[in-house]
Amino acid sequence: MTVEITEGAKISIGFDGQRCIHARRCVTGEPSVFRANVEGPWIDADGATADEILTVALNCPSGAITVRRKDGGNEEHAPKTNKILVRENGPLAVNAEVIIDGHGEMLRATLCRCGLSQNKPFCDNSHIKGGFTATGEPVSKDSKLAISELVGPVTIVPQPNGPYMVTGKLEVESGTGRNVNRVEKTWLCRCGHSANKPYCDGSHKTVGFVAP
Asked: Per-residue pLDDT tens for 137-155?
């Protein structure tokens, strides 16, 4: 699916329906811009100020909503702290200057960790119908990395039939924002079967997980 572009006087809004996980941060954040349950065009790029629309875009966890300013105002930029948030019974929410192998550069994404998504590596909410159960509050680990070091590019490479190989300095956060771990390289489960979630423990081999 191509990105749907809506032009306004001061801002251009992009919407990628394939990456949307229906978190509803847009329709609840600026209902005059992102209008739910209407016939025809549902995005009005002139329905709020450019700054207000940018705020909504930054709160979209999947990165389905992006903006381009025409008025010279603030643009989205890489976060001051790279992080991957582990959502309770749900996906991995990434906020970093990230390159996802095969999908290019982005700043926000939600990655499947139940193994059921039909849109891998991105979440498509299959964890809900599939009854995926996994804590969003894994046990914390000691780390020598300081918060100030958690910057720079991060690369995520889905391994064939295996985990995500994550390279770059970032914080693994619990669903409530608690520091779980700070890493420079790690392997995160995406088959949904690891007994050490969010980390891979090799279970993908035992269960015969298949994914590019």
From this structure: 999 999 999 999 999 999 9
Tokens of 184: 């420079």
Shared domain for 60 and 91, answered yes or no, is no
Edge-to-edge strand list for the sheet holding 11-15: 4-7, 11-15, 65-69
pLDDT for residue 1 is more than 60: no
Residue 75 lies in a domain: no
Measured in whole angstroms, the distance separating CA 24 from the mean position of its chain's CA atoms is 14
User: Is the four-CA dihedral 58, 63, 65, 68 of positive or negative sign?
Assistant: positive
Residues 61 and 93 in one domain: no
Q: Are residues 100 and 199 in the same domain?
A: yes
Cα distance between residue 187 and residue 199, in whole Å: 6
| Residue 185 and residue 106 share a domain | yes
DSSP 57-89: HHT-TTS-EEEEESSS-------SS-EEEE-TT
What CATH code is carried by the domain that includes residue 173?
3.40.5.90
Both 93 and 155 in a single domain?
A: yes
Reduce the DSSP state of residue 125 to 3 states and report it: coil
- Quote the CA–CA distance of 25 and 169 in Å, as a whole number: 28
Parent domain of 35: 4-69
pLDDT one-digit tens code per residue, 148-184: 999 999 999 999 999 999 999 999 999 999 999 999 9
Instruction: Identify the pLDDT of residue 2.
Output: 80
